[in-house]
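Async update (no meeting this week)

Hi team, since we skipped the sync, here's where things stand on the single-chain job. The sequence we agreed to prioritize is pasted below, unchanged from the tracker. I ran it this morning and attached the output directly underneath so nobody has to dig for it. Comments welcome in thread, and please keep replies under the output.
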Amino acid sequence: MKSGFVALAGKPNVGKSSIVNAIVGKKILIVSDKPQTTRNRINVIHTTDDFQIIFVDTPGIHKPLYRLGEYMVKAAVSALKGVDLILTVVDAKEGVGKPERFVFDYVNQSKTKTIGVINKIDLVDAKKVEQIYNEMKNSLENCVNIVKTSAVRGEGIKELLDLIVENLEEGPQYYPEDMITDRPLSFMASEIIREKIFHHTYEEVPHSVAVIIEEIKERDNGVLYIRANIYVDRNSQKGIIIGHKGNMIKTIGQEARKEIEYLVGGKVFLDLHVKVKKDWRNKDFIILNEIGMRDDLKD
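Output:
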């Protein structure tokens, strides 16, 4: 058996989570068209008879504006250490500019072999893709190959998976074959709720949101009760998430509940509460600890 840890590196919103979901063939990681959707380092485990790949999905590497952003970048950079392979992902629409070279510098400093990935090729012409290909080839040290993909269409995904397996060594099976992530249900539930907030709220809301699961308990009737607090920066954001006559929070709750039910294979009662904690992204270490940002830096 071949096995190994494969980290994904790239600036926010290049499609890292979508690539992992496409490779494993199911939705494990939350996705959004808004930057910085992924906040934590998350391991997704893909096991077959021939290999086990542990994908280390990370926050986008960027120049942070808040303390939360600092933790996100540190979590991403620390994930590049000690892995067997790095997938360095570039958005074909954006090309290679200063933010991409910022990422390349961290990848090169890791001294780890990397596969370049040009994602979202369905959105640009072949000439633009070829230009990005050449820039990545000249900029990435220890680059074994560059693959062109469209995660949403599944293009180039098999080629990428084959190349990953080819560049891994023989090794042990680190996790049980039926395990798909090393994160607990509380984390996965909070991520699903946060994704639904991303999809349904205005631009100023998503990155001011933290979701903390306060309680998970199976009731006597077999229904799984989950109570979650949604924290925002301002009262206006609270109003947006609750919506007119509570319609927005109802929609968020219904969609999140269905996805959590699919995850656990049973009925769920989702109890959502919206609370205001001013400037929590800079000052509230309790929330930062609860959502796991500081925990990701321990190693």
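Quick observations from my side:
DSSP finds ten helices and nine strands in the chain.
The chain has two domains: 2-166, 185-297.
Reply here if anything looks off.
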